[in-house]
Amino acid sequence: MHKIKVNLKERGYDILIQKGLLSGCxxxxxxxxxxxxxxxxxxxxxxxxxxxxxxxxxxxxxxASMTVFKAGESSKNIDTYAKLLRECCRAGLDRSSVxxxxxxxxxxxxxxxxxxxxxxxISFIQIPTTLLAMVDSSVGGxxxxxxxxxxxxxxxxxxxxxxxxxxxxxxxxxxxxxxxxLAEVVKYGVIMDEKFFSFLEKNLNRINNLDQKxxxxxxxxxxxxxxxxxxxxxxxxxxxxxILNYGHTFGHxxxxxxxxxxxxxxxxxxxxxxxxxNLAIECNKFSxxxxxSHELANRQKALLQAIGLPTSLGKGINPxxxxxxxxxxxxxxxxxxxxxxxxxxxxxxxxxxxAPEDVKRAIExxxxxxx
Amino acid sequence: MHKIKVNLKERGYDILIQKGLLSGCxxxxxxxxxxxxxxxxxxxxxxxxxxxxxxxxxxxxxxASMTVFKAGESSKNIDTYAKLLRECCRAGLDRSSVxxxxxxxxxxxxxxxxxxxxxxxISFIQIPTTLLAMVDSSVGGxxxxxxxxxxxxxxxxxxxxxxxxxxxxxxxxxxxxxxxxLAEVVKYGVIMDEKFFSFLEKNLNRINNLDQKxxxxxxxxxxxxxxxxxxxxxxxxxxxxxILNYGHTFGHxxxxxxxxxxxxxxxxxxxxxxxxxNLAIECNKFSxxxxxSHELANRQKALLQAIGLPTSLGKGINPxxxxxxxxxxxxxxxxxxxxxxxxxxxxxxxxxxxAPEDVKRAIExxxxxxx
Lengths: 371, 371
Known about the structure:
2 copies of one chain form a homodimer.
Chain A: E1 2-6, E2 13-17, H1 28-32, E3 36-42, H2 43-59, E4 63-69, H3 78-90, E5 98-103, H4 105-117, E6 123-128, H5 131-137, E7 142-147, E8 150-157, E9 162-165, H6 175-192, H7 194-202, H8 204-208, H9 212-232, H10 248-257, H11 265-284, H12 294-307, H13 319-325, E10 339-344, E11 347-351, H14 356-365
Helix pairs in contact in A: 3-4, 5-6, 5-9, 6-7, 6-11, 6-12, 10-11, 10-13, 11-12, 11-14, 13-14
């Protein structure tokens, strides 16, 4: 079993990664025994893993029940949030109770925010069942819901007390969702670990064949890397955590302009990373310290493509619209963009003063329309 | 000017207390200059103090606007919360913006929770305009909203960046609300400061005549005492902060049974403190360490009555119902009550194993029906 410690002092916790973990986890007993537990999950995941998780909790000595909401990002709103809070009351949860977030990013974010705010905050355990949630959203304590005005505009930083990852659940995941998770996996390589990036390049066959051992290694390394960043900047205040947004400022804008219909999040991030690489090259022209080259941009692009991720924009998408949408990002402060750019594979820096024409050009360049 | 420092390290802040502070406060500039500010207030307070606060903010260099919700506890719900979050979007607030909570406990709790959760938490400034909010709810970082199932069931611990208190605003407050605030003031004396309790006894005339200097002193001392407790137990985890609940476990039950109609919060707390004093005497019979006597209970009762607060239950209120309602309190854990009892004036202890018959008797005794 891989065990990763997230060292956040009194808010510290373990991430446990092992195939078959959901059939029984000895570490669960101390976290839930004698307590009321409410499993919050969506209609897809609840059907497949709900009964097993409930029986595992009961075996660990918990007084466990489950509540299910309709699967999909459209459920991640204030109405579902209010409904789940009332379910907590109905289940009789008190301050010593535990919420279990079971599923992908949507149940994780929603249930996490419920846990962060019910009675001003109770414990919660993350059991991510998608690759994206395993390597990204379940680690780091970001919870939240969407408003009609934008995604994740409401929420809290609230750390789980335990994260249980069973890579066996990836077998039931659609291939497209695996690919989306892999976009974030590649991201970790580019932003902080060239060796890991090379590992991905060398293990493409195993990755594309969903080899369990390889995925255990990948998930564990991504969690380690994310934990390192989160510990250095828990609440996104020092700027360090911002490196995790590599590809995301562009990616969110791509999602906004295409109205969250054409691209899944990971696909938009994949395109966003290519845009960021282009911008790094554009900026490079004027700053000799930045060594990012066409060669490195192509290496990133090749890996993303080998995984099956998009690296250019579909036809009919207006680059200027994407540029404008970038300013609506939650991380834009006082009208200024902060963009994460690669310096080399394994290292990024944050640029606050990219020229608008360079940014627009970087967006256009993903389609190879400009030289 | 009284300036009280709340020493919560990176979450530390100042409480400034001075008559006339809302006409202009030099300390405001560094907190708001160049930032977007949204004043959140209710329809009563907005009318009286809204324009003044807005112009003060603008003078301090802020880009300030205001949003107003219908006055009353019934507004402290998820619908108003959702509406206010969308107002934040409309006002274009980003992570560097500031929310201003202007008014009593309801605007403070609501706006505080909006600030705690909008973009996963932005700065906020408390400007309490009721005595209760000045001495209690605006200090300590408790924010929240009600559910149909109970009060304050949802929220966050979120510290303000500054608290501005102008005792001049008490002039526009109904007398009953002043009395309610004074119930909490008396509470501070009983739980931690006998000297302050004596000060109140000696200054009854000045208190009942709303003497501004006396109120400045009272508010400053209460804030100091509360800050001390909050710093020792910010998130109500070590049990220390629980002493602030003196009179509240009984009081909340009185409010629940009378359906929040008959008694205002402070009035219910006043009755609750008398019940707690009775229970201290009941328990005293069996534990020689507890010195609380009829004499001390009467001293507390006399002060509450001199202020004009109720110290007994109205007719037709069933003590057993009150007893049962106590178990619905948010602080009840795994079906067990934790009740704060006076040891002497100026000191309390927490009792976890009070016998049900003693608790029931303590409730009945407020009406003098049992000897």
